[in-house]
Amino acid sequence: MSLPTASSVPGASQATASGAKTDLEFDRQHIWHPYSSMTSPGNIWPVQSASGVYLRLEDGRELIDGMASWWCAVHGYNHPRLNAAATEQLQHMSHVMFGGMTHAPAVELAKRLVALTPAGLDKVFIADSGSVSVEVAIKMAIQYQHARGKPQKNRLLALERGYHGDTLGAMSLCDPTRGMHHLFSGILPQQFFVAAPQTGFDEDWNDQDSEPLRQILSQHHQDIAALILEPIVQGAGGMRFYHPQYLRQARALCDEFDVLLIADEIATGFGRSGRLFACEHAAISPDILCVGKAITGGYMTLAATLASTQVAETISQGEAGCFMHGPTFMGNPLACRVACESIDLLLENNWQTQVQRIEQGLLQGLAPARQLDSVADVRVLGAIGVIEMKQPVDMTRLQPACVERGIWIRPFGTLVYVMPPFIMTDDELATLTAAMVAAIAVSG
Where along this sequence does the record place binding of pyridoxal 5'-phosphate (predicted)? Predict the structure, then answer.
């Protein structure tokens, strides 16, 4: 059976004739984009293709992508090695169920993850998105405590200003007042929250910063299965960089109060913060680790939740006799094969040198923003650059101003930030940062 052609579908010839304009109108009428309104959808720019760090629009304009497609396309677009890996895998199988079966791409990916992640994370559950990997971590923590004979430890503790995803369990761990999910508070599991770290990454450590964490664990550890946090970098909750000592204290307090530590490295994993995993800034290992985003270099959705042997074996010896989760696309061979190639490419490209170079370019390129009256702060860590505004960004003005200057970024709230692909050249980075500052100056 062949697919219908334009001439065989009613109305298709008219759509073909009107081209991209009609497609864009259809998009506005029928397609619901992330965090968008169907009655006031805002600006949409049709993308024709992508290569390297450039997005080519339907009208021929090229934009330098400062977002790496929401932080995942670390090698840029249309990379020949990642293309070849996907093509080669397609000759064997694009998918096969993971229940009762295994395959080389999954085994090879697990080998790489066990070798590269912090010590002790030896069991790998391959999920199909970042939010799902957090859901898996939640279930692991609760099932672990239940298997230990402590079913009352069935709530989680999270940091204010945190963000962990858009599915229901993950939403319950996002900041309950400043976050994006307060509308759903009536149906979400009720979790514990503690004040976010206040000591900045490069500031002198304040011993009182971890005291609220100690207090809440002291009072409620009997009910808490795990503490979940984004190590060092709080991403969508504010692009905040906090002191490594807080993470060390969190690890020690979890041990003291018999609570698991879950590290959500979906955004920070694979080099983004200047370390391969942000936990390395504090030289700690969590009990459970979530990774995603950059794992396939932005080619397709994939994530993983890693656990210690103690967590995995305790769950496996509990009432259920197994871990109670199994996504249809778990261990997808195509995604796993590309992920292996992406990780190999990351290591061969000397990612640390790439990220250090980008960090220096961001420090230099974003510095002039400090002179703008509308800017509250400028901060950089690894391949993350943030301009924080005094007032929320007017997207209807700032985004078009950026596109006019040949760059693509996606501000939110008061934050104008970039997480560029690691392959971005110094000249491209200078163009990106200069255009950001200029766009803020005329629209901020």
Answer: 130-131, 264, 327-328
Closest to 66 measured CA to CA, from 57, 55, 56: 55
Indicate which residue of 21, 35, 255, 426 is catalytic: 35
- To the query of whether residue 35 is one of the catalytic residues in this protein, the response is yes
List Cβ neighbours of 259 (8 Å cut-off, separation of 6 or more): 153, 157, 217, 221, 224, 225, 226, 227, 253
| Type of residue found at 353 | T
Residues of the chain by 3-state class (helix, strand, coil), percent to 5: 40, 15, 40
**Residue list for the binding site for pyridoxal 5'-phosphate:** 130-131, 264, 327-328
CA distance 336 to 91: 15
Q: What is the pTM of this model?
A: 0.94
- Mark residue 132 as left, alpha or beta (left: phi above 0; alpha: psi -120 to 50; beta: remaining): alpha
Cα–Cα distance between 348 and 118 in angstroms, integer? 20
Number of neighbouring beta carbons within 10 Å of residue 54: 18
* Residue in the block written with tokens 């909750």: 237
CA separation for the pair 276, 283 (Å, rounded)? 12
User: Where are the strands (E) in 174-302, listed by range?
Assistant: 192-194, 224-229, 233-234, 240-241, 260-264, 288-291
For residue 242, give the DSSP letter: B
Among 175, 209, 293, 417, the active-site one is 293
Both tokens assigned to 152 = 């009352």
Question: Which of 65, 128, 209, 264 does the annotation list as catalytic?
Answer: 264
Non-local (6+) Cβ contacts of 93 within 8 A are: 103, 333, 334
CA distances from 418 to 197, 287, 349, 355 (A): 22, 30, 21, 13
Q: DSSP letters of 76-124? A: -BS-HHHHHHHHHHHTT-S----TT---HHHHHHHHHHHHHSSTTEEEE
Active site residue 293: yes
Q: In the beta sheet, which residues pair with residue 281?
A: none
Residue type, 246: Y
Give the up-direction half-sphere exposure of residue 241: CA atoms within 13 A in the CB hemisphere: 22
Token pair 């503690």 in the structure block, residue: 194
Q: Which of 54, 77, 144, 163 is catalytic?
A: 163
Question: What confidence tens digit (pLDDT) does each residue in 263-275 have?
Answer: 999 999 999 999 9
**Binding site as annotated, residues for substrate:** 70, 163, 293, 326, 410
